[in-house]
Amino acid sequence: MFKIILSVFLLTSLVYASNQKKIHDKNIQAQLEKEKKYAKEQRFYSEKEYDFSSAEVNPESVKNLKEIEPLYDFDMDDVYD
Predict the structure, then answer these.
(1) How many Å apart are CA 28 and CA 21, to the nearest integer?
(2) How does pLDDT run across 13-72, given as a tens digit for each residue?
(3) Which of 13, 45, 56, 80 is placed for a possible disulfide with 50 were both Cys, Cβ 3.0 to 4.6 Å?
(4) How many CA atoms lie within 13 A of 55 on its CB side?
(5) R_g over Cα of the chain
(6) Which of 2, 3, 60 is nearest to 26 (CA)?
(7) What pLDDT is stored for residue 81 in this prediction?
(8) Cβ 54 vs Cβ 34: under 8 Å
(9) What is the DSSP letter of 56?
(10) Which of 63, 47, 44, 43 is closest to 55 using CA atoms?
(11) How far apart are CA 42 and CA 38, in angstroms?
């Protein structure tokens, strides 16, 4: 029973990791294409010509982030005493 659960867990992990790698590789390729374009043109863009939408955060990737808990409870009341 344990071997079956372990096998299913490993298989699921591998499928998830390969999917994340494909997404990551696709984003890298898109950025490399933009860099090739900018290197070929060899000019600086103004803020009106630059595409800032590529720097936006993907809402799907935010769901996977863990919430960071503070390491201590900081209390400002004791600071001014």
Answers:
(1) 10
(2) 878 877 777 888 888 898 898 888 878 777 766 777 777 777 888 888 888 888 888 777
(3) 45
(4) 3
(5) 22
(6) 60
(7) 60
(8) yes
(9) S
(10) 47
(11) 6
Q: What is the dihedral of CA 5, 8, 14, 17, to 10 degrees?
A: -80
Q: What are phi and psi of 45, to 5 degrees?
A: -100, 145
Task: Identify which of 53, 66, 58 has the alpha carbon closest to the alpha carbon of residue 23.
Answer: 58
Q: Are 24 and 47 in contact (CB under 8 A)?
A: no
For residue 40, the model assigns a pLDDT of 78
Distance CA 5, CA 12 (A): 11
Task: Collapse the DSSP code of 74 into the 3-class scheme (helix H, G, I; strand E, B; otherwise coil) and give the result.
Answer: coil
